[in-house]
Amino acid sequence: MLAKVKQITTPLDKRVICISDIHxxxxxxxxxxxxxxxxxxxxxxxxxxxxxxxxxxQNHETLKYIMELSERKNVYVLRGNCDRIEDYLTEEEKTWxxxxxxxxxxxxxxxxxxxxxxxxxxxxxxxxxxxxxxxMEKGLIFKRYVITGHWPCFNYTHQIPCFNPIINEKQxxxxxxxxxxxxxxxxxxxxxxxxxxxxxxTFLDDLPKIVINKDQQETCxxxxxxxxxxxxxxxxxxxxxxxxYKHLASGKLMTLPNHGEFIDFNGxxxxxxxxxxxxxxxxxxxIVSVVASFGNRIYAKKDGIVGWIDLD
Length: 312
Description:
mainly beta
């Protein structure tokens, strides 16, 4: 099936707010709209994956809320690969989802959940627009900026682990998915904004916060971060809280916590959901989000970037 394409106008004097991959986190979504002070003068584009996989009890409420939002003339909604037709939905809700566009096109930008093969938008395949993994790594170059969700920005990380939107000026691709579902223990909901052809963003997460009591320098060299595509490791030396592992794709050694939320084992082989040897640069008095604690060491997030902090 060919993709449905909707044309809109994005005047330069209007702010365009893009939010993707809400995944049923309705409370966080509402708070993010309040944080950016969304109003009738703005254009809001929701880039799909808005209601499934989310928190218990909020999926359907999220769908209904976004349907109400879409009645406003300045709100546009795309369909993502997770926006499936569920049995419990009303006929009206099913029809609304089925009629959603897969691509939104303006004079300046192309909005799509997963990705496109070319700017020949009338010839795009619908499922490929919704489900298009690692879109930025396919080497495609566009004339207009293509703004996408679907593939968490973290998965494009090869060194410093970051959940913030990525702007690839050469390819003219912008990825904005903050990974609130695949990385629910450290991800965030991003709002990417365009105003007078200038880009900015902000985000929210629900992680607990602490105040840091001493300065720490960042890791400067040989940074390794484990991502979804290259996450296999093997045990080199087992420890009580931390063990030494060999990352199979790179051959590098890394210390990781022995924690069920972060690593699944099959014998001596493991598949960490996250791992890095990066240490965050912090100063005494900084406020950071706590991802996980391991004695006097924590995984923490500051300004959308995750790394280790030694508290002692």
